[in-house]
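Entry for the shared binder. Reason: the reviewer on the internal report wants the predicted structure included alongside the sequence.
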Amino acid sequence: MDMKTLYSAGMNFDAFMGTGIKSERDRIPKNYSRIVMTEDEINIVKNIEKKINFLVSGEPWCMDFQVNVTVLKKFCELNPNFDMAIITKARGEKFLKPLMEVEEFKVPFIVPLSENYEVCGDIFVERPKEIKKFVYEDVKMEYLKGQYLNETVKDLIEMITKK
């Protein structure tokens, strides 16, 4: 399976979250309301002129997915050149993992693709880089309450602006 086929098999964010249970869906507006971006960050996202299709693998019940992909949803709302398609973790492990040649597959797994469905930036895996510097249990509650959403914003901007 190629990236274009895998992307076309994905769902948009709202449809994908619609497959989750009520408590999972209810976390999204809370997470969304906690996203704080500087004016510079908003302008960087808005002013990217290239088309980017974000292929995301995850699950509605996954808290890392709920936290981080909500930021990507905001990016897609800010820039009409951005689109997102979400596939399940199982489909990601079966098809995306070998395509990306990674040994370990954690979700969310976010791959930026060009309009020709070629990888066009770094991948985002599971959590922001800053969180991975800590013992997860030490920062887990703050992270899940959105106190590190700014780190997701930074990582996603870096992912799509890196040359």
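Summary line for the report: The chain has a mean pLDDT of 96.
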